[in-house]
Design goal:
The protein is mainly α. The protein has helices at residues 2-36, 56-61, 63-68, 76-95, 102-121, 137-163, 168-182, 186-196, 209-235, 238-246, 251-281, 293-301, 311-346. It has one domain (66-354): MetI-like (MetI-like fold, Orthogonal Bundle). It contains 13 helices and no strands. Helix 5 (102-121) packs across helix 6 (137-163) and helix 11 (251-281) runs antiparallel to helix 13.
Length: 357
């Protein structure tokens, strides 16, 4: 029996070596183009005389455009400040236990978007106005993902409660709304919001293109978040509902203080996956004329000075690495939340606000 197991291990090891060798053979040409044969030094298109390797001087020269789009150089401190504040607000949301996050969540969802919008758009407190047509690059991608999530999360909670409502009419309306939007492709929704919606509005009324895209993405994301929270609501033990009623809690009080904290904890890994999907789908904004990360790279590499080099391919590789890095970080955080939630359930931490996630 030991000899059989040893033979099985040798076979698996051999298969693993063959698979690894195959992967290396497939990846080596890409690695050679991106690293070994790449051009790293120099300035301008003359630094990349042919297409034999990646043109990293293009990324260095267009880095500010890739990050900020056409946002005025003298006002980019507002972007750095706004996103920095958002990152600082996320730290307590990541580190604090669930029962201590209520104030931070409320501030992040309600106050931060308004403050960030005032900072980015300007026109108040002496800030120079900067139209959304100048927003672009990684900055626009992060803003769209962040604002869509902050708008979609409370809507998703309401949709989940609506689908689980004891009132048949509310349950039917919430279910119809979710099923309709989940059945429509994201690109179609964006086209309707950005291109077709103005056809039904008065000529004198114009809604900002970015605002329309944010509303469309928020509606779609709310439906997916609502379904994940609805599934988590059904996973909460029935005894939690009965205990809340025994303590004299009504429907809303029981859900706010006992049921929803547990459901959101369970649904958090899946919600994180939805956020990752939304972040990647922001690349569709280029189709409707917004200069997101993909659109900025296309515009920068379309410059006639760079058309003979491998600038465009290098730009696509760079934004692919950016997307991968950000999404990988979010996926690792999702895995961490899942492990913590599992420990909470295993340790009996499902007693509403009395237990920590």
């Amino acid at each position: 029996m030991g000899a059989g197991l040893s033979e099985g291990r040798r076979i698996r090891a051999g298969i693993g070596v063959l698979v690894l060798a195959g992967v290396l053979l497939l990846l080596w040409p890409a690695f050679d183009w991106a690293v070994t044969s790449a051009y790293w030094a120099g300035q301008g298109p003359q630094a990349c005389p042919d297409r034999a390797g990646a043109c990293w001087p293009f990324i260095r020269e267009r880095f500010d455009q890739i990050i900020y789009g056409a946002y005025p150089a003298g006002e980019r401190w507002r972007v750095n400040t706004g996103l920095g504040i958002g990152a600082l607000l996320l730290v307590p949301l990541i580190l604090l236990p669930l029962r201590r996050k209520a104030v931070w969540v409320a501030g992040f969802l309600l106050l931060y978007p308004l403050a960030a919008l005032a900072l980015f758009a300007g026109g108040v407190f002496g800030l120079v106005p900067v139209g959304t047509s100048a927003w672009g690059g990684l900055f626009l991608t992060v803003v769209v993902g962040l604002f869509a999530f902050t708008a979609a999360f409370p809507m998703g909670i309401l949709l989940a409660l609506g689908r689980e409502s004891p009132i048949p009419v509310v349950r039917m309306l919430a279910g119809s709304w979710v099923e309709f939007w989940r059945g429509v492709p994201t690109l179609v929704v964006l086209f309707v919001a950005v291109i077709m919606l103005p056809l039904f509005l008065p000529v004198e009324r114009e809604i900002d293109k970015l605002a329309r895209a944010l509303v469309a993405l928020s509606i779609l994301m709310a439906c997916y978040i609502g379904e994940s929270i609805r599934g988590a609501l059904r996973s909460v033990p029935r005894g939690q509902y009965e205990s809340a009623r025994a303590l004299g809690m009504g429907y809303w009080r029981a859900h706010i203080h006992v049921i929803l904290p547990q459901a959101i904890r369970v649904a958090t890994p899946q919600i994180t996956n939805i956020v990752i999907g939304l972040f990647k789908e922001t690349s569709l904004l280029v189709v409707i004329g917004l200069s997101d990360l993909l659109g900025v790279v296309q515009a920068a590499s379309g410059d006639t000075e760079w058309h003979l080099s491998s600038a465009r391919a290098t730009g696509y590789l760079f934004i692919a690495l950016l997307y991968w890095g950000i999404c990988f970080a979010m996926s690792r955080y999702s895995a961490y939340l899942e492990r913590r939630a599992r420990r909470g359930w295993a340790g009996g931490g499902s007693a509403g606000l009395g237990g920590e996630a």
